Automatic annotation (TrEMBL):
Similarity comment text for this entry: Belongs to the nitroreductase family.
Keywords, comma-separated and alphabetical: Oxidoreductase
Gene3D superfamilies (UniProt xref): NADH Oxidase
InterPro entries to which the protein is assigned, alphabetical: Nitroreductase, Nitroreductase-like
Recorded GO MF terms: oxidoreductase activity
SUPFAM superfamilies, alphabetized: FMN-dependent nitroreductase-like
Protein name as it appears in the record: Dihydropteridine reductase
Keyword Transport among UniProt keywords: no
Residue span(s) of domain Nitroreductase: 7-177
A Pfam family the protein falls into: Nitroreductase
Amino acid sequence: MDTFEAISTRRAIKKFDPNHKMTSEEVDSLMKLTILSPTSYNQQNWRFVTVTDQSIKEKIGVAARNQAQPVDGSLVILLCGNMSAWKDDPLRYWKNHPTEKQELVKASLEKKYADSPQNRRDEAIRSCGFAGQTIMLAARQMGLDSCPMVGFDYDEMAKIIELPDDHLIVLMIVVGKSLEPAKQRGGQLRLDEVVFKNKFN
Ligand SMILES: Cc1cc2nc3c(=O)[nH]c(=O)nc-3n(C[C@H](O)[C@H](O)[C@H](O)COP(=O)(O)O)c2cc1C
């Protein structure tokens, strides 16, 4: 499958095959690709909770207002932002580069995030957005399907996954084998409603 095909065949799946399981090697392959997703300053501020345990998936299903996907899908991934990543031993984000580069990045991170909860939160959301698309496209290449989801009770989910205080749940993605094709697309907007050449006016 090439990239264009992965993009155009990715759909938000409602019914997953409850009998399909992913091996831990498959989950690891998917997550190894996922952590190649871009983050600002390479701060890698996403944290992923990968759930395959059926009893936890069922609790997640209840928190997701009884939507079926987390219960029937093979893998549930909670994409979370670590809003302390900017100060969490930041030299390691450029460990392959000279010390001067590492120190430069550390200073830039401090400048941008130390006094701005908004920047920390925005960055968490941006990073998890990119990672989410990587997960869904890589899943297609592995012959799997997915559903991105935010229809869940945040506090309940935070309790289930024991979310640390300085982390934010950005979204959940269920990966698995589709039991039936997605319905016809809702309908994309016209290109000229959403794409502006050079500027808005
Ligand atoms: C942030 C986000 C949250 C979503 N939450 C849910 C959800 O809770 N339940 C669900 O069935 N679909 C959910 N969806 C799927 C969207 O409804 C779906 O992506 C959209 O209708 C476009 O369809 P497509 O993904 O098949 O192209 C969500 C999608 C996104 C991006």
